[in-house]
Design a protein that fits this description.
Elements (H helix, E strand, L loop, with lengths): L1 E2 L7 E6 L2 H13 L4 E5 L3 E2 L9 E5 L13 H14 L3 E3 L2 H7 L2 H10 L7 E4 L4 H8 L5 E5 L9 E3 L2 H9 L11 E5 L7 E8 L2 E9 L28 E4 L6 H17 L3 E8 L5 E7 L6 H7 L3 H17 L3
Parallel strand pairs: 1-4, 2-3, 2-5, 5-6
Antiparallel strand pairs: 7-10, 8-9, 8-10, 11-12, 11-14, 12-13, 14-15
Helix pairs in contact: 1-9, 5-6
Length: 325
């Protein structure tokens, strides 16, 4: 449980709701002998009449919190971040980042502004309107997805109107926690892979090629590899493969500056962008994750650690705030 202690010494405050995902970062901060506070928003007590403690505040709130029983953690975090803003505290991934995290509609508008292509998408608030959404995206296979999801939850590939009707009226249908379902033109992944591009401090770290052959619920966190209920893993191949040279490719040269501009526009410092290429190698962006996780097995093969980079970024930010050279 997170309980506000306004007399705390300056620290790095980690705002989150998932201990499994956050513990690897805590370990890196301990390795660097940095003071940190665990602000777990799954159970919080916040005295907003008090002054917040000093230090750096890193927001790692997740859109999928409701899948872990933490339905209102994002809403509570919105208020927490506003309270911190009112005292001019240094926040990494503030309210704008959280707005993006919990709404793909907000993400797509931001992607369009910087010229990154998004698949044709229709948003509906009633499940029967999914059929109308399919009609609007006429002549194409579609994917349905939750506007507020995470881990690819609620994603369904539907290849005909009959399949859409069966899904809407069947037991497989699941409603988005925010009541908004997206109906999206299906872009068949080239070689059954999608790409996830990681940034820390607004700078490119690496890209990850993700094999989607086993399905859509593909979270790179190590905790997600515990069982097939989270992220399907085929032991005969590597689901995640890191590409350190993505920024040198034609797609990287074209898209990385636009991703950086989006982060600047939205005041985001840590994020991951996901896109899929069609058969003509045209990239379509469909997700921005501001609560990014890293796969240690893939990183070990590539001899890189984004969590190390993140911890040192937090260290530098903390030292600037408290005046340590």
């Amino acid at each position: 449980m997170f309980k506000l202690l306004s007399s705390s010494n300056p620290s790095i405050h980690i705002i989150h709701e998932n201990q499994e995902w956050t513990e690897p970062l805590f370990q890196k901060l301990r390795d660097l002998d940095l003071p940190y506070e665990d602000w777990d928003m799954s159970h919080s007590i916040i005295d907003i009449s008090a002054e917040p403690p000093k230090g750096v505040f890193y927001n790692r709130m997740s859109a999928s919190s409701h899948t872990r029983g933490n339905r209102f953690a994002p809403e509570t975090t919105v208020g927490l971040l506003a309270w911190l803003d009112s005292y001019n505290r240094h926040i990494i991934n503030g309210r704008s980042a959280l707005n993006l995290e919990i709404s793909k509609l907000v993400q797509y508008a931001s992607l369009k502004i910087v010229g990154l292509e998004v698949p044709s998408t229709v948003a509906v608030s009633q499940k029967e309107d999914i059929i109308n959404g399919y009609n609007i995206i006429s002549g194409h296979h579609i994917i349905t997805k939750h506007n507020r999801a995470g881990k690819g939850l609620g994603v369904q590939l539907l290849k005909s109107k009959e399949a859409v009707i069966e899904y809407v009226n069947g037991d497989e249908y699941s409603e988005s926690i925010d009541g908004i379902t997206l109906v999206q033109k299906y872009i068949k992944p080239l070689d059954n892979t999608i790409t996830r591009v990681e940034f820390i401090g607004g700078e490119f770290i690496y890209a990850v090629k993700v094999d989607t052959s086993d399905g859509f619920e593909l979270c790179p966190a190590d905790a997600c590899e515990i069982g097939e209920d989270f992220c399907p893993i085929d032991t005969n191949r590597n689901t995640f493969e890191i590409d350190l040279d993505f920024e040198k490719t034609d797609i990287g040269k074209h898209t990385i500056p636009k991703m950086k501009q989006l982060m600047k526009n939205e005041g985001i410092e840590v994020a991951a962008f996901e896109f899929v290429c069609d058969e003509d190698l045209k990239p379509y962006f469909y997700d921005i994750n501001t609560n990014t996780n890293y796969n240690r097995d893939a990183e070990k093969r590539a001899n890189v650690s984004a969590m190390d980079t993140l911890a040192r970024y937090l260290q530098n930010s903390f030292h600037q705030v408290v005046g340590i050279n």
